[in-house]
């Protein structure tokens, strides 16, 4: 039984408190439902479709996890390939983790943090000039604006293979920044 002191003596106050408790309960249930495995699979499928339609990229991931209250997400066992060459990924990673800023809720995608574990880039060019890189497709005017934070990628493996010559780089550290001069912490190589 609910304590009469908690609900107050006024019927109007009691109804207001019950409505507030019901609203909080509904929000919590919605958050729990949004984190269910079937919903995460649907979100991943929508992301796959969006990348395919807008950028010509075939995304495959072992799993997607996210936390809506913190606006963060992680993809595991990631493979990116051009739509025309899905069996030859141009990039793979063990894990990609991102945190989004509040502006993302208004459609202006704002990344606050990007972390990539075990990234590998593999560009292959065939003798006929074709390669495994994506070609952007779709209408660019409907794409969301993406603002990237400085990104640090460690232990990066890159390979470029073509009939005449091949190049491989293993264990590189890469710092990516957008606009403006680099900060003192991001100058030079380790």
TL;DR of this structure?
It is built from three helices and eight strands; from the N terminus they run H-H-H-E-E-E-E-E-E-E-E. By secondary structure, it is α+β, with helices and mostly antiparallel strands. The longest helix has 24 residues.
Structure commentary:
The chain has 190 residues and is α+β, with helices and mostly antiparallel strands. The chain has one domain. The chain has three helices and eight strands; from the N terminus they run H-H-H-E-E-E-E-E-E-E-E. Strands 1, 2, 3, 4, 5, 6, 7 and 8 form an eight-stranded mixed β-sheet that branches. A hairpin with an 8-residue loop joins strand 2 (72-82) and strand 3 (91-100). The radius of gyration is 23 Å and the shape is elongated. The termini are far apart. Residues 182-190 have low confidence and may be disordered.
Q: Keywords, please?
A:
single chain; 190 residues; eight-stranded mixed β-sheet
């Amino acid at each position: 039984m609910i304590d009469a002191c908690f609900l107050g003596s006024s019927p109007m106050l009691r109804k207001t408190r019950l409505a507030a408790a019901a609203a909080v309960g509904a929000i919590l249930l919605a958050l729990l439902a949004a984190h269910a495995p079937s919903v995460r699979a649907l979100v991943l499928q929508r992301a796959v479709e969006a990348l395919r339609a807008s950028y010509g990229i075939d995304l495959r991931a072992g799993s997607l996890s996210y936390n809506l209250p913190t606006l963060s997400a992680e993809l595991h066992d990631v493979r990116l390939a051009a739509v025309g060459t899905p069996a030859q990924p141009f990039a793979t990673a063990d894990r990609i983790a991102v945190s989004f800023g509040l502006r993302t809720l208004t459609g202006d995608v704002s990344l606050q943090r990007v972390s990539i574990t075990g990234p590998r880039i593999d560009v292959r060019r065939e003798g006929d000039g074709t390669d495994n890189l994506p070609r952007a497709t779709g209408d660019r005017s409907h794409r969301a604006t993406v603002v990237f934070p400085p990104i640090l990628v460690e232990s990066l493996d890159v390979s470029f293979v073509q009939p005449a010559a091949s190049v491989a780089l293993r264990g590189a550290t890469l710092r990516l920044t957008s606009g403006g001069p680099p900060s003192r912490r991001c100058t030079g190589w380790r």
